[in-house]
Amino acid sequence: MEHKGYFMGIDAGTTGTTVLIMDEKWDVAAKGYQKHIMNSPKLGWMEQDANVLWEDLLCAVKKALSQLPLNARILGIGLDHQGESCLIWEKSTGNPLSQAINWQDRRTVSASEELAEKYGEEIQKRTGFFPDSYFSAEKFVWELNQIPNGHQRAEKGELCAGTLGSWFLWKMTGGKIHMTDPSTASRTMLYNIHTGLWDDEILEMLSLPRKMLPQIGSSAKRFGMTEPQCFLGLQVPVSGLIVDQQAALFGQCCFHTGMIKTTYGTGCFLLMNTGQTPIKSPGGLLTTVAWNLGGKDTFALDGGIYTAGAAINWLHEKMGMIESFEQTQQMAESIQNNGGIYFVPAFVGLAAPHWDNCARGTIFGINSMTKKEQIVRATLESIAYQVSDNLDVMIRDSGFPIQVMRADGGMTVNSFLMQFQADILNIPVDVPVISETSSLGAAYLAAFGEGWFSSLSEIESNWKLQCRYEPKMSEDERQTLLYNWHRAVERSLGWLQKEKP
């Protein structure tokens, strides 16, 4: 269905907020971006100021709106967000009572390990997740314990807890709406994927009052109207809410069972649509909600990689090996191979499929002839290897054969990385015309929530291919590279356990 006006998709990501405004042909009419600041007050701690993130969101929206005609009509807004990153705020004032603890934060490792020992299998049965500091649950516990009389205040209904999606929705609607969607709720490790409700027994295990959690609604529905005084003078329906990676799956039009996308950002995230049935992964992947439409959950298998683009940032900010991300492609292509260098970028441990909090970053194969170009190339290659490890488990645990992978995110402009990814996977990698698929997916959900699409097939017809990377590598070379990569990973595992007291 054609619409006369525009739909806005807001991708409030980890390193920045991207806003796309789509016209009636679903082409990009305007775009805004604002970079975020990450604070790390202690080793392993990653947090952001929620008020600053809100100002960043407004700034990105303002930049995009400035590119539209003055009389342009915004028909709906879709919002996606970082997923597990979360905070607690005061209901009466809207003031944050904690920093937004980022999904990469590791301060709750000990508490999560203790929870896993006691209740791990039961929690996994209910939520699809085995306890880990990655998820919001233990972050909420930590935050609540820092607030004076926090538990009593939460029981009285004075506090709101939520992921950043709930926080932004609260701010956009002037404090009128405290809601979330099932995709987001599932990332907290407090949502029962079988009942579609907050799990009271897990809340009791963690002594988390249910009163402070948001109400759960569909991913595509009218949550409420923006408050003009709070949101740049606009009164527009917010009609889509979803986690950023699930938004990318939606934006990539992976609507059929077995379709898969990988987003290359700060971390790297593979999601496979598994349809109406949650599939348990013995191999270490997460069973998560992809989205909820019309009251029905669609599920996904999720292979999350903590460190992808973050390793490129490390090369730039900490090591001074590169001046920009764009430079990495030229440096990687300037040499014939990686020179035997393998880099496992386990800065904060390894996520799926290893789930090892004690793994640490390691570089193997260094000798007196090693050049920085080889380390840069090995860093790019490490991203593709991690994707390969997750895809292997995904195919095995789902039973679905994978013919092609759709790729999105900022790093897809790096043709070396995309070609190497196709070579290592031995399947084609497709990059769409619009690579900001999280923002696009959020905009699609808003349009769906406002009734502009009657079916997913209408959305699917908008997907356009920009470039397909076909595998070219020999099987012998592929297997040799993967063999050495796996040797490197094995040596990085459990590193912290070997440290002397």
Main β sheet profile: 7 strands, mixed
Helices and strands: which structural class?
Answer: alpha+beta
Strand content: 15-25%
Q: Please give the radius of gyration in angstroms.
A: 22 Å
| Secondary structure: number of strands | 23
Q: Numbering strands along the chain, what is their spatial order in the largest sheet?
A: 17-18-16-15-21-22-23
Could you estimate the helical fraction of the residues in percent? 25-40%
Residue stretches low in confidence (pLDDT < 50, at least 5 long) are none
How would you state the average pLDDT, rounded? 94
Approximate shape:
globular
Q: With helices defined by DSSP (H or I, 4 residues minimum), what is the helix count?
A: 15
Distance between the termini: 65 Å
Describe the protein in words.
By secondary structure, this protein is of the alpha+beta class. It is 34% helix and 23% strand. It contains 15 helices and 23 strands. It has helices at residues 50-65, 109-127, 136-146, 150-155, 164-172, 182-185, 200-206, 244-251, 309-317, 326-333, 372-398, 415-425, 437-449, 456-460, 475-492; strands spanning 6-12, 16-22, 28-35, 47-48, 74-81, 86-90, 100-101, 159-163, 179-180, 191-192, 197-198, 215-216, 220-225, 237-243, 260-264, 268-275, 286-293, 296-305, 342-344, 362-364, 405-408, 429-432, 465-469. A seven-stranded mixed beta sheet has the order 17-18-16-15-21-22-23. Helix 12 (415-425) links the parallel strand 21 (405-408) and strand 22 (429-432). Helix 8 crosses helix 13 and helix 9 packs antiparallel against helix 11. The longest helix has 27 residues, at 372-398. It is globular, with a radius of gyration of 22 Å. The mean pLDDT is 94.
